[in-house]
Amino acid sequence: MKAMLLAAWHYRFFIISSIKTELYSKFIRSRLGGLWLILNPLAQVVIFAFVLSSVLSARLPGINNHYAYAIYLMSGILGWSLFSEIVSRCLTLFIDNGNILKKLVFPKIALPLIVTGSALVNNLLLFAAILAIFGLLGHAPGTALVFLPLLTVLTISLALGLGLVLGVLNVFVRDIGQVVPVVMQFLFWLTPIVYTANTIPGEYRDLLKLNPLLPIITGYQDMLLYDRTPDWSALSLIFLLSLFLLAVSLLLLRKAAPDMVDQL
């Protein structure tokens, strides 16, 4: 495991250049360039806000803003978009790059790191757009925003650990690639992004707490909407889960690496 991390460090310039190349390839053939990276999640916000704001906007305590529900939505979407992009791309990462893995010799850990770097840049662009929209809506995030980098690192760790495990397994069991997108749809709706947690009947709220994304998404909403410090006690459990998944994923990648190329 240590050897894999050292190999990633030795190939850091390859990883950085690959991230730049990937982002540049998205921009060069499009007149809107980087705007396409943020239009999809923002379009989701507009649709949900238009359809559901009249139902849920009155249930946001402590927020005196006519556009409170849209702000709530954007806060949750920021965290979800980062998590879902990393997991979804890692799921088919090794399959999509099968030809490269057969022809070039480089540490396989470089591929998920390239995906993570690209997803982080996309998320930063989305964050900048959200801040601009907050300003237009008359909402200014407070000092709690200083904790956003920590929450971002935690979100990346959880997504990368889970995505890498699924990506390796998907090389050998292709059904995983079909099941996970469906599970991700369920996970989105089982996470209080479109709705607020207090709309869930009391007898089901304990089940909601089993969702590992709940503390993360709530943390984004606390910082961006309510200017509150995230619940670090709940996030500490997610941190331990992230470390476990990362350790398992790296071990799984190291063990499976010799056989992956043959399967691809």
Given helix and strand content, the structural type is mainly alpha
**Spans of 5+ residues with little confidence (pLDDT < 50)?**
none
Shape, please? globular
Largest sheet: none
Can you tell me about this structure?
The structure is a single chain. The protein has 264 residues and is an all-alpha fold. The protein has one domain. It is built from 12 helices and no strands. α4 runs antiparallel to α7 (110-136). The radius of gyration is 19 Å and the shape is globular. The model has no long low-confidence stretch (mean pLDDT 84).
Characterize this entry briefly:
This protein has 264 residues and is mainly alpha-helical. The chain is 76% helix and 0% strand.
Could you outline the blueprint of secondary structure elements for this entry?
Blueprint: H1 2-10, H2 12-28, H3 36-56, H4 68-91, H5 93-96, H6 98-103, H7 110-136, H8 148-172, H9 175-189, H10 202-208, H11 213-226, H12 232-263
